[in-house]
Design brief:
Elements lengths: L2 H12 L12 H11 L4 E4 L5 H5 L3 H7 L4 E6 L14 H7 L25 H19 L4 E5 H8 L1 H10 L10
Parallel strand pairs: 1-2, 2-3
Length: about 180
């Protein structure tokens, strides 16, 4: 996609938004970010677990400055657990969530989906979790950290089909071409 195509795609989604790019490895830029945090309601970060802490912008640092902030961390496998430090992409997330085996044709090995299933909807799930944290903040006066794992989001979305499998004993497998 060239720059003009990228711009055309961005304009409808970025309408009336302001943005700033900061290199958080630079002390002055980090201080500018922290000043923005002082007035923020929500901070969303998508670093691998541990990176925000190394940069000094993790939940603990942000919460110390602004206890009302809702801090959302979006990663492939969550902030803790055995996979937390693994690099991941959409194909990894759908595989870990048990979805990859159901993509393709019966009798054939799984194939890479044409549409990115893992990333689609992740922002929406994060938005719901952030809104729930904002409602809680209105009751308690304190923000909280939201941990959004893309792989868990996919597994949750597949829950109805898994429940049907458990109820009927039918093994999940390739059922369609996607």
């Amino acid at each position: 996609m060239n720059v003009s195509e990228r711009t055309k795609a961005f304009l409808p989604m970025g309408r009336n938004k302001r943005s700033i790019a900061l290199d958080l490895k630079d002390a002055r830029a980090r201080q500018a970010f922290l000043r923005l945090v002082d007035r923020a309601d929500v901070v969303v970060e998508g670093f691998r677990p541990g990176v925000a802490a190394r940069l000094g912008v993790d939940y603990e640092a942000i919460h110390a400055r602004n206890p009302r902030v809702v801090y959302c961390s979006i990663s492939g496998y969550g902030q803790t657990g055995p996979y937390a430090q693994l690099v991941g992409h959409d194909l990894n997330y759908i595989s870990v969530a048990g979805v990859l085996g159901s993509i393709g044709s019966p009798g054939q090995p799984p194939r890479s989906p044409e549409r990115r299933r893992g990333l689609r909807g992740g922002g929406l799930f994060a938005a719901f979790a952030i809104l729930a944290a904002i409602v809680a903040r209105e009751k308690t006066g304190r923000g909280q950290q939201v941990d959004m794992a893309m792989s868990e989001r996919i597994a949750l979305a597949r829950l109805p089909r898994r429940a049907d499998t458990l109820a009927t004993g039918t093994r999940l497998g390739p059922a369609r071409t996607t």
